[in-house]
């Protein structure tokens, strides 16, 4: 255990989460924004679907842990939406089971503590042409933008019914002109611009949420932010630079 103790934000999901610290990803951006405020913890598992996530909930989020996360951001659905394979193998999860799995994940996470907050990310869109080119026969599976829409809408519906926060990435990404190439690297995973959309939406939800305490970065304490005679000196006075990179002209709200 490394101190001082900070709030924990856990990113839980498949490759969209696992890769979120590369290529100026949304996980790395959140870690920068919340520097000295919260620890961003990665629990991403490339290729996973909601069925596998449900199977390991107790291992990743034990209910008897001494410290529980303040926020869990969940993403499963894209791999679930891959069309069924003739062999019965592969990541596809039937829609009815996916809906039930989202409920199970939400119930487990909300039971961790009264202060644990949850945000679900829906399946983002895919560029089918780009995806076919990037896979190039290496993987025998079919993923369509329409199937992603169906699973995205199902996730949103579950979250509405459970009064949970959810972000409609399928719609948000497609608001961008030429989203297929601007937001996606291989038809599925995010470019830096795509990750900016994810961060913007997450911060919007956190800012608008009526959570106590607030988890918005501007409302959270900065660790060791008191002034010190060891701070840099400018014009004969010390300058507190504890939040220097995130003040004034920060692009994040």
UniProtKB/TrEMBL annotation:
It comes from the Eukaryota. One of its GO terms (molecular function) is hydrolase activity. SUPFAM superfamilies: SGNH hydrolase. Keywords: Hydrolase, Lipid degradation, Lipid metabolism. It holds the Pfam family Lipase_GDSL_2. Residues 11-196 form the SGNH hydrolase-type esterase domain. One of its GO terms (biological process) is lipid catabolic process. Residues 229-253 are annotated as: Disordered. Belongs to the 'GDSL' lipolytic enzyme family. This is GDSL-LIKE LIPASE/ACYLHYDROLASE. It comes from Salix koriyanagi.
């Amino acid at each position: 255990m490394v101190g001082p103790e900070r709030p924990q934000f856990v990113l839980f999901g498949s490759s969209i989460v696992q890769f979120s610290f590369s290529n100026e990803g949304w996980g790395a951006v959140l870690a920068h924004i919340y520097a000295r405020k919260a620890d961003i913890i990665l629990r991403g598992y490339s290729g996973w679907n909601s069925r596998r996530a449900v199977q390991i909930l107790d291992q990743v989020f034990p209910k008897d842990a001494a410290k529980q996360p303040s926020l869990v951001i969940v993403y499963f659905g894209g791999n679930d939406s891959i069309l069924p394979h003739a062999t019965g193998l592969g990541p596809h999860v039937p829609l009815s089971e996916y809906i039930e799995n989202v409920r199970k994940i939400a119930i487990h996470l909300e039971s961790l503590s009264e202060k644990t907050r949850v945000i679900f990310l829906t399946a983002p869109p895919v560029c089918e042409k780009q995806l076919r080119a990037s896979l190039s026969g290496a993987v025998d599976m079919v993923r369509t933008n329409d199937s992603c829409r169906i699973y995205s809408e199902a996730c949103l519906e579950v979250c509405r019914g459970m009064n949970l926060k959810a972000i409609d990435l399928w719609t948000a990404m497609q608001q961008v002109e030429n989203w297929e190439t601007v937001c996606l690297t291989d038809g599925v995973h995010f470019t830096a611009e795509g990750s900016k959309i994810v961060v913007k939406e997450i911060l919007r939800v956190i800012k608008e949420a009526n959570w106590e305490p607030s988890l918005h970065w501007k409302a959270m304490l900065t660790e060791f932010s008191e002034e010190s005679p060891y701070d840099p000196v400018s014009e004969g006075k010390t300058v507190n630079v504890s939040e220097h990179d995130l003040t004034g002209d920060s692009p994040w709200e």
